[in-house]
Specification:
- The complex is a heterodimer of chains A (174) and B (130).
- Chain A has 174 residues and is an alpha/beta fold.
- Chain A has one domain: Rossmann fold (3-Layer(aba) Sandwich), CATH 3.40.50.
- Helix content of chain A is 34%, strand content 24%.
- Chain A is built from six helices and eight strands; from the N terminus they run βαββββαβααβαβα.
- In chain A, α1 crosses α6 and α3 packs parallel to α5.
- Chain B has a single domain, classed as Beta-Lactamase (2-Layer Sandwich).
- In chain B, 42% of the residues lie in helices and 29% in strands.
- Chain B has a five-stranded antiparallel sheet with strand order 2-1-5-4-3, sandwiched between helices.
- With 130 residues, chain B is α+β, with helices and mostly antiparallel strands.
- In chain B, β3 and β4 form a beta hairpin.
- Chains A and B meet through β2 of A and α2 of B.
- The structure holds guanosine-5'-triphosphate and magnesium ion (MG).
Chain lengths: 174, 130
């Protein structure tokens, strides 16, 4: 039985903490504190990391880490990326510029993505249809990243498990 | 940060204390007061570029300290002390009734950890009442 580390990143409020809580076997470790950034209407925000564990049917264990979203915490991005076998990027289509958001995380985690695998989950696309999956896919390809991009709701366990599956499937075929 | 949720009066008092610590603590390299989510409220640093980085790092470390205090049933985290080869870093919570902030004091190797910790704690207590 093996243990793997996965990392979830993406912009503030995309649902990283929610996604980990949705799939973790035990209550996750959460480092959310009061948000003081008045430009984002959100009560609490992750400043350290999220951590949850998930045991798969084959007995393997996934250790799932979530990053803070804001760029001022990029030193945590580097710390958390160490030893990860893949990256899930959650985006939020209701944000001002989801394409630019995606590009930021693709650039910041390019070493990890090149070395391992990546999946992109697009949140709130039911209410905010643009950018489309195609638009995001073109942006990713321009960064040299070809990977699954799927609409998700981070609150839905099945959706998050699908992202994990897509990531693991890519790794198997590597 | 202009749109951060801290009163101008508090910022002014914090700035005064930060300047005082920088002048009084021998070996002080940087002093920062920051919000729990990593925004700088007041700062003095030999290298000014360092202070916003320190504010964000203090936030992450304090949050991780809080989780460790919690998971080990040790209670809330009051401070974190880092002893490095060429200096010391002391981070203490400012438990202000409106919100918890963090005071970070970085010194070079000439400073004494005990004295630095004492100064930081006293200042944090004063700021908690500001
Ligand atoms: N409508 C909608 N709400 C969502 C979706 N995903 C997450 N949410 C909600 O959006 C909020 C996201 O919060 P978090 O999980 O804290 O997001 P985060 O990415 O960890 O945020 P930071 O740590 O601040 O970067 C929660 O209130 C979720 O319930 C989604 O797909 N649709
Ligand atoms: Mg979070």
């Amino acid at each position: 039985m093996a243990e793997y580390k996965l990392l979830i990143t993406g912009p503030m409020g995309a649902g990283k903490t929610t996604a980990i809580a949705a799939i973790s076997d035990a209550p996750p470790i959460v480092t959310d504190v009061q948000n003081n950034d008045l430009s984002v209407a959100k009560e609490r925000t992750t400043v350290g990391m999220d951590f949850g564990e998930l045991t798969l049917e084959n007995g393997d264990t996934l250790r799932i880490y979530g990053t803070p979203g804001q760029e001022r915490f990029d030193f945590m991005w580097e710390i958390l990326a160490k030893g990860a076998i893949g990256l899930i990027i959650l985006t939020d289509n209701s944000k001002r510029d989801p394409v630019a958001d995606l590009e930021l995380y693709l650039d910041s985690f390019s070493t990890l993505i090149t070395r391992t695998a990546c999946v992109i989950g697009v949140g709130r696309s039911e209410t905010h249809p643009t950018p489309t999956i195609d638009d995001l896919s073109i942006a990713a390809q321009a960064k040299g990243v070809v990977c699954p991009i799927v609409p998700v709701d981070a609150r839905e366990r099945d959706h998050v498990l699908m992202l994990v599956d897509l990531l693991l499937t890519q790794l198997e075929s590597k | 940060m202009s749109d951060v949720n801290v009163s101008a009066a508090f910022v002014k008092i914090a700035d005064h204390h930060v300047a005082r610590l920088m002048a009084e603590v021998s070996g002080a390299v940087a002093v920062v007061v920051s919000t729990a989510d990593g925004f700088e409220v007041a700062a003095r640093a030999r290298d000014a570029a360092q202070s916003s980085r320190l504010a964000a790092m203090a936030s992450s470390i304090a949050a991780i300290g809080a989780v460790i205090g919690d998971e080990t049933l040790s209670g809330a985290c009051r401070g974190i002390f880092i002893e490095a080869d060429r200096g010391q870093i002391v981070m203490v919570e400012i438990r202000h009734p409106e919100q918890v902030l963090i005071l970070t004091l970085v010194t070079d190797e000439t400073a004494l950890l005990g004295a630095v910790t004492y100064s930081a704690r006293q200042t944090a207590l004063a700021l908690a009442k500001a």
